Amino acid sequence: MSAEDRSQPERAHLRSMKAYVPGAQPDARAIKLNTNENPFPPSPRVMAALAAINARSLQRYPDPLATAFREAAAELHQVSPEEVVATNGGDELLRLAVTTFVDPGRAIGVASPSYGVYSVLAEIHRARLSVSTLTERWAVPADAAQRWNADGAQMAILTNPHAPSGSLTKPEDLERLAADFKGILLVDEAYADFIDPDLRFDSMALATRLPNVLVLRTLSKGYALAGLRLAYGVGSRPLVEPMLAKTKDSYNVDAVAQALGIVALQDNAYAQTTWDQIRKERIRLAEGLEALGFSVAPSQTNFVLAAIPAASLKSARFLKDELEARGVYVRWFDESRLENRLRISVGTREENSAVLTLISDLMKTP
After folding, report:
1. Which CATH number characterizes residue 101's domain?
2. Residue 311 is part of a domain; what is its CATH number?
3. 98-147, pLDDT tens digit by residue?
4. What is the β-pairing status of strands 341-345 and 331-332?
C-alpha cells in the first residue's frame, strides 16, 4: 500500500463525495423543529412494553425475519406478511433497494430537490443519478418517467408526500408514473401518516398490485419512535423476497424494536390522535407565517416550507442563525430553490406559538 493509500484509505470515488448532513441535535432545553420528529410522546402502551422487556430477550438474537412485526404491519395495511420487509429505519430500506435492484454504474432516478440521502447512497453504490426537476408547485413533471427511462434507470425514488415541500402526488398519478417507468419505483412515504384523511390517500394497493412499486413506511415520524430506528417496506413478493432472503443483514432489526413496533402499530388509534393534533397545528403554523409575510407551500406532512419575506429579513440563513442563537432550531438547505426558505417542523401548540412570536420580534429588529 502506497503512502497516499494509507493517508486516504477509503475507496477513491468516495474521497470527494459530499456526505449527508443530519439536522443539529441540541439539548433538551431547545425548541427543536429541524428534524421532523413527532412532538408528542409514543403510545403509553409502547412505554409499558419497553418497561416489560426482560433480560432473556436481550441475551438472545432476535427473530431474523421480524415475523411478528411483519404480521402486525401486514394486518394494518391488509396485505400478506410475505409482502412486508422490516428494516433498521427507512434509510436501511433505501440502501437495501439500491443494493438489491441497481447494478453499479446504472442510473437511479430522483426528483429534485429531495432527501439528500438518495444521492449519497447512489454515490456509494457507484450509481449515476437521473434527475427530474420538480415543477414550480413542487409536482413531479409529466416527463419524469421518460427521462429516467432514457438514462437507463433501474430504480427511481420519490418522496411522497414530498420533502422538503410537503406536496402530495395522488395515487392515480403514482400509478401512471409506475406504468410509464421501466424500472422499480420506490415511494418513500415517511410522512404519509400526516396526510389529510379526507383525501383518502392509499398507495398500498399499488404496492401489491403492480410488480414495480415498493412503498417505504417508518415508525420514526407518525409513531414518535425516531430513536428506535424501525421501518418497513411493502411490495410484491418478487421485490420483497430477495431483500428478506439475501441482501438484508442477518439480524437487522433488534428485539426491542420488534417488540415495541408491534405494540405501536396495534395501538394505531393513539397515534392517530397525535396526527390529528399535528394537522391542526400545521394549519395554524402556516397561517401564522403567512400573516408575517411568508409564502408557505401547501403541506401534507408534519412540517412546512416557508419562503421568507425579503423586505423584512436579510436571508433565510440569517433567520435560521438568529433563531438558533435563541434556542429555536429549524432547517435551512444550501440548495437551488431552497436558499431563501426554511423548513419548520410542526411542534406542540406552545412551541409553534413561541417560534411565531420570536420570528415576529426578529422582523421588528432593525
Report:
1. 3.40.640.10
2. 3.90.1150.10
3. 999 999 999 999 999 999 999 999 999 999 999 999 999 999 999 999 99
4. antiparallel
pLDDT band at 17, cuts 50/70/90?
confident
Last residue of one domain, picked from the residues 204, 234, 268? 268
pTM metric for this prediction = 0.94
* C-alpha Rg value of the chain to the nearest Å: 21
How would you list the strands of the sheet with 341-345, edge to edge? 295-296, 303-307, 341-345, 331-332
231: containing domain: 54-268
Residue 5 confidence class, pLDDT cut points 50, 70, 90: low
Residues 163 and 276 in one domain: no
| Number of domains within the chain | 2
Same domain, 237 and 320: no
Q: Which residues contact 140 (CB under 8 A, 6 or more apart)?
A: 111, 132, 134, 158, 169, 173, 177
